[in-house]
Fold these 2 entries.
Entry 1:
Amino acid sequence: MNHHDIQLDKYGRLKHFLTIDGLDRSLLLDILNHAESFAGVGERAVKKVPLLRGKTIANLFFEPSTRTRTTFELAAKRLSADIINLNIASSATRKGESLLDTLRTLEAMHCDMFVVRHANSGAAHFIASQVAPHVSVINAGDGSHSHPTQAMLDMFTIRMHKKDFSSLRVAIVGDILHSRVARSEIHALSTLGVSEVRVIGPRTLIPKDIHTLGVHVFYDLIAGLEDVDVIVTLRLQRERMRSALLPSEQEYFNLYGLTETKLAAAKPDVIVMHPGPINRGVEIDSHVADGKRSVILQQVSHGIAVRMAIMAMTLGNLAESKPKESDAHSN
Amino acid sequence: MRIAIKHGRIVDPANNQDRVTDLYIEKGKIVAVGKTPAGFTPNRTIDAKGKIVCPGLVDLSVRLCEPGYEHKATIASETTAAASTGITSICCPPDTYPVIDTSAVVELIYQRALKTNMARVYPLGALTHGLKGETLAEMHALQGAGCIGVSNAYAPLDNSAVLRGALEYAATCGLTVHLFCEDSYLRDQGVVHEGIMSVRLGLPAIPETAETIAVSRALLLVEQSGARVHFCRISSARSIELIARAKKQGLPVTADVSITHLHLTEIDLGAFNSHCNLRPPLRSQYDKEGLRKGLADGTIDAICSDHQPHDDDAKSAPFSMTEPGASTLDVLLPLTLQLARDNTLTLSQAIAALTIKPAKIAGIQAGHLSAGAVADICIIDPEKSWTVIKNNLLSAGKNNPFMGWELTGKVTHTLLGGRIVYEYQD
């Protein structure tokens, strides 16, 4: 099994979407361009295109999630696919065998795509290595490894506001160590050619070898925010306070919480993003979250278009039939 | 039975020998090296021209999976695999099920090994009862039953008072403590080395300090107790520095490294390759170089396979949910010979690290070709190439991280007590 090419078919087309790491710039731009063509679908009277009619997609969530699962569901429905939701109770002791058994069972139901969320890094890769050749796997978040659709919808949002990536300075703030979003964003931003990626947080939450991904590390929020065009604030998990990583939410907010005052260090036209769900008063102040620099709600709606693009591309239905205006009316 | 092994390159580091000559075996023992003994008429002559003749290999860590994990491998399957790769003596760690903390389990292992009679099996007894790290195992009784050392295997020994007591008591019995060093708090849920790949793959990481802190603590307790400690599966360059200093100081310590850590690094994790889920984890390129250097300068005494056969299911899951360990019995010798070809070691150093040195650590009569010694012998065709594919692996465990590698060096004959237990059929 060739692990490195597992995402691409023999023609270099997207077969699975597991990680941004290893995908090239033109493929990422394809995703953004396709997403742009889908962006209007949700605003039409008939919110559907028939691209994936007759396809069956299984949302396979081993970890609870509402918004990601819902946007995948909406994306599938707007592409006219049939979608089933399986919320498999998360259990740390779940055996590999039962995961394989679950897959085999779903395969027997002739699913064409698995959208997978799992608490273990590498779970989506593992599933992609096990499925039948016609099945595509989309990673909806695996452990601390990767959340590539989130990264792409963030890129979509950035492009919408900033047009060009090459001049941008982007700061990612918070728990980098445990964040799959941060890892995917770093790969996406570097591949799309931004001028600088910074990570900001306490030493306990920044892996010591993170510089090998080509990012600049800041332990001081204000210094890190200086002159940035985009800020991505990460959700802080409560369990960090139970281990010896952080003393309290209050102290974290004082040091790394994004407030109007701290925002002043960034460029005046900075945009503030957050993958959600937000802990108000922990990583971000309400004034910022709801303020005019915030694009947090736009991210959610862009999530549907981006996921539509990725689903259509991996199932191979886009090359032949790009969505046309007429598609929306033919339904 | 009288066997003559003719024209082989006899490599016997214990006797400082490396020359082309003949070797004679009678009644299970080596009777002469060089000159034919008077009146010796062999029943069997092995032509070893162009081959290396060396002592049967001594492997300090092989998990035979019996008792308890027979669905992965058995004493019969793994000792047969060992024979095919020149290994004649095997030490097995106590983390079987049940744990080797009673004489009954020791006896069972000896009996099963004797039934197949393909390799000598030497159990390591538990250091603490049930490997729980709380109370001392009956080390004296285990020694009486045939354990050649004691160990807590992978089980944590977080309580320093327990470790101190265990070392002092083992020293009282004259037993070597085979110590795997890992601070379980620093390891936590970690599965890979804390480095560039843990950053990339987002896998829970094990810092180098999980090993170095445990090594440092053990060295201080060795200094205090005088216990003989063998450091198992050292994985980091920093640990080598600590052990080198202790050896210089004259402390009674030895160390080994697994063959896998001498050839692979964290980079080989690729995209979550579960065959590289190992304990200790594969570390950096810098660490691999440090291990090789430590071996060359004698800080590390022995190379072992650290063989851990698994069933397919054990490796078929998301990375952190797979079981650690690699099946490496089949590749120990060729990968060690490769270190000699790479000029990392001399051939004599490479063979010593697989024979006399581990034999001394285990305290067993093996690993040399002196006249009068038991005829445990390995004959190698050093030029024969072969590819690591499932069908070429005799171990029941196919979880070999070297799958697809082209290796050079193949055992043609293995003799156990003068009996040919393996002969290569082309």
Entry 2:
Amino acid sequence: MKLSDRRDIETDVYQPAEDSRLLADAVCDRLEADTDDLVLEVGTGSGYVAGRIADETPARVIASDLNPHAVRQARGDGVETVRADLVSPFADDAFAAVAFNPPYLPTDPENEWDDWMERALSGGEDGRAVIDPFLEAVPRVLAPDGAVYLLVSSLTGVDEVVERAGEAGFSAGAVADHSFPFETLTVLELFR
Amino acid sequence: MKESLLDILRCPLDKGELELEDPEYDDDGEEVIGGTLVCTDCGESYPIDDGIPNLLPPDMREETPA
């Protein structure tokens, strides 16, 4: 990879952090997948979580992102990628599991900086501007006994997300969490 | 993209099935690196760029933050 490409990636693509690792650990730990199962990671960014699931479980993993720099980096690391808005270009009942580390930071609209990194981080004023549409859309592409693994932060409001998931027909359980000085990260497992 | 991915890809607008047109394959023929995916229902077409299908709805395709 050329140095200029690497620099673009550092400014345009969210790189793996504690939240990515927590989500990857939780999915690899919880997922009971067969070789013919498909797993989708939405908003894959660098492709780190999708790559971990592909390496550590028998499932075939597909990763999607809105960001052209992200899908290029993820594909460069051997992840099967699709440029997509959430789950819109996928078939009904296609996935045994869907994982998502969403943009979740509540952001003052005055402070939105309108680049790819902002899209990767900002969840709008309440932190749920992307999570809510995801919860409405994801049941369509999930196999009947499939599970969703969603990373949420105390900054976003775990109870609010669980309530929205309930409205979308899901039961939710926390399967992993990690506390930091300013927030607690939780991985929710959603099932029907 | 692997051609088998077509089994689960759909038109983001109407969930119609997609047909691969003018495919270009990589040297060992395992991956589709170029071509167009066309919806068999509405006829909307989606490009495959450097092996990555771009299935953003047409109104989002041009959106490029700085």
